[in-house]
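Example complex used in Figure S2.
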Amino acid sequence: MKTDKILLDHGSGGRMSHQLLIDTILPLFDNPILSRLNDGATVDIQGKRLAFSTDTFTVDPIFFPGGNIGDLAVNGTVNDLAMCAATPLYLSVGLLIEEGFPTEDLEKILKSMKAAADKAGVQIVTGDTKVVPKGAADKIFINTSGIGLIPFPLDIGSDKAQVGDKIIVSGTIGDHGIAVLTQREGMDFDSSVKSDTVALNHIVKKILLRTRDIRVFRDPTRGGLGTALNEIAEKSGIGIRIYEDKIPVKGEVAGICELLGFDPLYIANEGKLLVFVKASCAEMVLEGIKTDVFGKDACIIGEVVSDHPGKVLMETRIGGTRIVDMLTGEQLPRIC
Amino acid sequence: MSVKYAEEYRDPEISRKLAEQIRRISRRNVRLMEVCGTHTVSIFRSGIRSLLPDTVSLLSGPGCPVCVTAQQEIDAFISLSRIENVIVATFGDLLRVPGTASSLERERAEGRDIRMVYSAFDALDIAKKHPDREVVFLGVGFETTAPTIAASVLSARDMNLENYSVFSAHKQVPPALFALMETAGVQVQGFILPGHVSVIIGTKAYISFFEKHRIPCVIAGFESGDILRALFMLISRIESDKPQLENGYPRAVTFDGNEKAIKIMYEVFEPADAVWRGLGIIAESGLEIREAFARFDSKRKFGIRACESDVQPEGCACGQILTGIKTPPECSLYKKICTPMNPVGPCMVSTEGTCAAYYRYYE
Ligand code: SF4
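Predicted assembly (699 residues):
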């Protein structure tokens, strides 16, 4: 459904965002590269295969436990490239700053961007800064774009999952969303949950050294694991079955979610990798992920099945079954 | 607030065993109602429905605060937001609820100053920061939220804050239970009573209801184990024809409830007739701001008429859904016209709404 005004939900990463893309953006720009709707575009230029991606970051608050908008912006684009199985190489950075923003905060943000770029092994090679009058933007927005090289052709993407594939997630879900949320004004939690913002290209590399039988790489950011799985189920035309007791969630994250009436499956992650892999390679890939410090809690959480194509079903910890739908609208805390 | 995770009540083994016991003892066809929306969501999320025998039907009741708020009140919220100089502070859950012609979310996109807050005290802070603006807090909720909102009014009085007021659309659960039993077409053989509300009002608040209707009632917590235990208790009572009012959530709920919270609530609010979506006017079921606090009452301040009738969007069956007479798939608009992206009624909007829960979790 088209609305005559853009609503906040259009940016939630769930069904409304998807709808905006389909109704308003795709019809204008449609081309075979864009229409694959993967995290980044894959283009061939004079015999080389490149991955190209862009992402814009706004986060409230801009500093949160485990990171800030700066490392988030670097890791976000690095991860989009890594999801195309590319080696991320160069990034651009666009800063949009509100008049009056403290220089000290800007320096902090830039320093963490530099540190994040170093860790990921990418260089920031071009950039742009704009300042807008007070009130015309909220503190600071950052855009990053990046390119990476795809070393060998791989047939991966959200539309490539196959029946029998195993599904692996590289660690606990929901950390980023909860870390940010608990810092918001008016949220009265003393929690120790930190954002998981991290570059995933090193884990991806470790996996690709072990096998090339990967069907999908995804980093389930906005919309969370639940939304990412739904998109894959829809695009690949397969069914997905996951097991609640296999999905790693920190106790504290689960507790906060429960208080607010949130489902951790829809909480944003910024450093988690979702892998669909041929069943026979699953254990090997899992071990590979676990050798990385950021992959210690990795788990096989489910598999691709032939029934209920396009849908995600979860076996609950008490042995029941339920549907996992795509996120529709930002999760809002319940009253009481 | 520090957060502990109630792992032990989530023990899957205990839940599996309880489900097994329920399947073993259940003979009669029963319709059990979970009054509270949080239970509805928890039941769906944990997959409890798929574990119950065919003899047991679960119905959702009028316990989603946003859902029972009357259309006319939603419209009043919206018109408040259009008043020059007003900042409306609201729980997020209300933003998307459709009024007759608009919603707070749409109004916000039109440029009205509508802010999402997590507590009435955030709204109070906004009022302190903007002495030249009028801050209206939309007080929607049951006995769980009412005491905190009452406390915010007391603080506003103590600080002599003149630009803070509360639009009270609060409701009390026990009167709704009476009304429900008297509504034509309602068939319920047992109630799962809300956990959070009962923490405040205590087991004793349900005694007169139980004595009048002699129907099994169990107060339950929100873990799958809590809910399955409550179901087991209800079904055993029904099978043995020995109705009881029981507290299945003793780790949080006492007989007397939270007396301090109750006192604050009634210091600021007084019971008044209120319109519930689906149930109509229920005597003494609402909470209005007392005369002594009139200057913190948005309705008096802005001359808003009391809500008198229960009009509903055309075709929307929320009223029957909130009383368990219909289930969402029996509404002709469900999933066809009415979706969480394009909700027709509040039951499709709220996190706790039955239609939204069915949409997300029901196959
Ligand atoms: S499906 Fe929509 S229209 Fe039907 S009862 Fe629910 S909210 Fe109302």
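The radius of gyration of chain B is 20 Å. Residues B 316-318, 321, 328, 331, 333-334, 338, 344-345, 347-348, 355 surround iron/sulfur cluster (CB under 6 Å).
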